[in-house]
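hey
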């Protein structure tokens, strides 16, 4: 099946990034959000990214014009998905919300459409159960920032068809991503490893092993990670990391996945990371700066 139209549901940081790479792939891309202000911010985020690329000489005015022509903000979900060959959901990690969204998408999207979820840890089979076509549903886990990160984790549940996997792999390639295929198990591959590393780094910080900067530098220079686990946790969102850990703790009935008390404290204080200006680090300058966690 050839992709001509894509619908992205949710215009937050991840959804906007996904819509951007879809538009750059040459597809008509409908970006939907239930909140007008959210949709406006998502479109502004995409435009700002392209304009920064032009300023740095990495993007041309012609490219921006062509990509912008592919991108369409849509305020009605039915309108967004009616002609879509691929629908990618990128709403918050709330199971009930995802169920409702997929049930509505199922009503209006063409029968051939592949339905992808950008969830980082929730069961794809469970999400697929909200539709009449579970064989067309697949996990499509992107990484932040989507236009830069090259990985796309595809999650195949038991009744997901091979044709659905093939289309998702082809879509990933068209977006310039390297895809990996994993089974539908809690945390998949990336989240399961990533949150454990981040949680242990927070434990080390709380125990006074080293400063946040030095813990991160150890992994960047010692293990060639592009970003340290604490800075990455701030970038992803400490609330997102906490929720994934809680899901793993319940799914595996294993307290080794319990969020460290410092992580819980930061989330309860609203220090969620870069998106709120402060988390493990202070991001008010745009760069991670050491700050007191008060633990």
């Amino acid at each position: 099946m050839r992709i001509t139209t894509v619908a992205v549901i949710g215009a937050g940081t991840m959804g906007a990034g996904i819509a951007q790479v879809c538009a750059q792939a040459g597809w008509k891309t409908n970006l939907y959000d239930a909140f007008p202000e959210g949709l406006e911010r998502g479109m502004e985020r995409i435009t700002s990214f392209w304009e920064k690329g032009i300023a740095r000489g990495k993007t041309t005015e012609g490219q921006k014009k062509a990509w912008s022509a592919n991108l369409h903000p849509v305020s009605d979900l039915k309108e967004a998905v009616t002609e879509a060959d691929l629908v990618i959901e990128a709403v918050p990690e709330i199971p009930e919300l995802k169920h409702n969204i997929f049930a509505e998408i199922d009503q209006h999207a063409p029968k051939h459409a592949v339905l992808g979820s950008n969830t980082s840890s929730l069961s794809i089979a469970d999400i697929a159960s909200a539709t009449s076509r579970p064989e067309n549903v697949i996990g499509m886990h992107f990484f932040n920032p989507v236009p830069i990160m090259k990985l796309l984790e595809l999650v195949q549940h038991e009744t997901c068809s091979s044709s659905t996997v093939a289309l998702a792999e082809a879509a990933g390639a068209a977006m310039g991503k390297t895809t990996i295929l994993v089974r539908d198990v809690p945390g998949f591959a990336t989240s399961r490893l990533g949150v454990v590393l981040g949680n242990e780094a927070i434990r080390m910080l709380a125990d006074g092993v080293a400063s946040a900067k030095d813990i991160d530098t150890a992994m960047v220079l010692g293990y060639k990670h592009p970003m340290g686990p604490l800075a990455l946790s701030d970038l992803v969102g400490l609330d997102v990391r906490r929720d994934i850990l809680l899901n793993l703790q319940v799914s595996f009935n294993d307290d080794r996945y319990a969020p460290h008390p410092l992580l819980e404290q930061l989330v309860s204080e609203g220090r969620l990371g870069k998106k709120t200006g402060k988390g493990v680090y202070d991001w008010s300058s745009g760069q991670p700066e050491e700050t007191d966690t008060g633990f």
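The longest helix spans residues 36-55. The mean pLDDT is 96.
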